[in-house]
Amino acid sequence: MGMKHQPSKTSSSSSFFRFTTFLTFALLASLLFIKPPALNLQEPFFRSEHPRFYGDLREAQFPWNKLCFGPASEKLKLAVFSKTWPVGAAPGGMERHASTLYSALAGRGHEVRVFTVPSDRLPRPDIHQGSLHVHFAANDHGSVNCSLAFEIFNRENMAGAFDYVHTESVSLPHWRAKMVPKVAVTWHGIWYEIMHSKLFQELLLEPQGVRPTPSADLRDAMPRLVDEIRFFSSYTQHICISNSAGELLVNIYQLPRRNVHVILNGVDHTKFVYDPEVGARFRQRYGVPSNASVVMGVAGRLVRDKGHPLLYEAFSSICERHPGVFLLVAGSGPWGRRYEDLGPSVKVLGALDPSELSEFYNALDVFVNPTLRPQGLDLTLIEAMQCGKPVLTPNFPSITGTIVLNQGFGYTFSPNVGSFVEALESAIRDGPSVLQKKGMACKAYALSMFTATKMASAYERFFLCMKNDKYCKYPLSTDC
């Protein structure tokens, strides 16, 4: 009887697995393909015009970068927890963001103490440069030792209390954040957005005509989202770096709107500047044909989730129909060798020194970002815009609601090869003259929103507001 009963158990188990798999996909679909009920393009988070705002900044429903804050007479002591700190060549976007923001705040006279590890994961001495102090607290593997970082933080706090504590995403884990009464977190990606990324990668990599088998990541996505929503309330205040993320934290994560703020990333606009002559020299140095009809470029890690399988397939199609189009690939990773297979229409540059990035952007007619990660605010898009270049990028909410507000800034596409090719064709049809005009529009917009000065000024006012309610009023007599 035992043998006869066993197939029934197997069948039952298989049926249950199929049911749970179906349920997971159904829940994912409901989240990913149906708009949250409160998302409305007319809501204030999505307004692109300069707001006329009077009142409490904690009620602002647009990026603080849009406002003009005056100088601060009061100096702050800030504690910062960051995943890594840029050391050595080719640092990633997160490291560059951290260095730019906290160096700018220290330059404004605030004491900033960062608890982190070097990006190269090698033993290094702490950094003390004026008001900026970087404390390295690494474990044996070079990652952050949370206990050691918190121990150093407590020692510095006893020497003189911090006015506020700031963490980049979960660099300060939520169970420790509960111990800190004055803490704000900046989210560079939330799980709701990450689920989009995993879904797009699954759809792109699954062969056509083959019924997809859900990956473990997709099956685990819903429980992880629920867990994240539950622990987000461990942080007192929340800063988002895109308009769409701000709406999601209010509508999906159910956080009080008064505790959710949008401050967009910024880059050093004195380093990323429009300079056609520098761009022309860069083209000559790397052998870009003088008769190239349109020069495109992509920068960053050459890995799957950055969309390089998508770009490879799309540009393979473009090469056949438009032999005069040229692609510059800046970065390192496994897809570098694949691009070399595309022949003379592609030049793989490898990882560029940060000082060369502005030259690289200036050498382009249009900057392409094929990312499959619809989260955060990619610095490469902002850097290219500062250099006067239009962008061609997926139509993710974090991008279209914050960076590429209309067709005057560039081109967007759905994350599939067909849509990508159509967008590339549009840029090619427009040609260098139209692309140059769009690039100037990008430059003007980036200077008004995405500079290190605007970002640091907004964060400065945020921390002052959190310390003392009087700074929450806008405008003050010292504001622009």
Automatic annotation (TrEMBL):
Instruction: Report any Pfam family annotated for this entry.
Output: Glyco_transf_4
Q: Which Gene3D superfamilies match?
A: Glycogen Phosphorylase B (3.40.50.2000)
- What's a single GO MF annotation on this record? glycosyltransferase activity
> What keywords does the record list, in alphabetical order?
Glycosyltransferase, Transferase
Q: Report domain Glycosyl transferase family positions.
A: 295-432
Identify the residues that the record assigns to the Glycosyltransferase subfamily 4-like N-terminal domain, covering every copy. 91-270
Protein name in UniProt? Phosphatidylinositol N-acetylglucosaminyltransferase subunit A
State the organism of origin: Nelumbo nucifera
* Gene designation per UniProt: LOC104612115
